[in-house]
Known about the structure:
- The chain has 276 residues and is α/β, with parallel strands linked by helices.
- It has ten helices and seven strands.
- A seven-stranded parallel β-sheet has the order 3-2-1-4-5-6-7, with helices on both faces.
- The model has no long low-confidence stretch (mean pLDDT 96).
Amino acid sequence: MRVLVTGSEGRVASGIKQYLDGDSPHEFVYLDREEAPDVDHVADVSDYDAIRPAFDEVDAVVHLAADPSVSASWESVHQSNLVGTHNVLEAASDAEVERVLFASSIHAAGMWEEEGKPEVYELDDDTNVTVDDDERPDSYYGVSKAYGEDMGRFYIEQHEYPKRFYAARIASIRAGVYDNPYGDAEMGVERGDWERGDEKYTEQVKRLKGTWLSLRDWAQLVERCLSDEQTEFGIFFATSDNPRSWFDIEHTKELLGYEPEDSASDWQSPPQELLD
């Protein structure tokens, strides 16, 4: 299978490069708006004519390109996330691409967290948000991800292509040495926002112990979506196997055969290289 990855220089794409590219039956080609050694197509997803050639002779698209900031302005998400996602789906339809995996976000349902925090970060909290619960965006970014899900359904139901659409509501992916439940807290220490072990540091750890999606588990989920032959349209929460999570991944496990290898509960401290 030939797979086009948009937004290929971002941290979410790094999981595909680290765990799938060269070690799977798929051939990955990369599109990004910035030039880089492994970028095959340089184009901005907000420019349909510029991206359209990249979709020829492609079997699947993993659409990651977007403004990833929860605090992004309407102007930014409008071009990068709304116009960009429409262009990707239109190009996939025109090129007769079979399947699209869309990088959605837990922020499409982020108000469940906003209303429930900080209690929702505790192990004994019983909040359990499923894909059957309402979309509740917490930001323009969250709105843009809910829009992408709905646009995907529209293309599945109203166009001949793509044949399959998967919306992965990604929780928290961190790259490199920060790919662990202490990543956000440790980044704050480096920035000087707080000290290791104080109240804000502890809250950041508790939150990421609920939302962490390891690069390894993300790569597995991508592979599951690329090999699935049952789903026409699906929304799937995407975290590692975290006891603190308030998002239901049983649906993801059952429908896609997802079996996360990592769990936030396995981590009791940051990696040693951050402590040195």
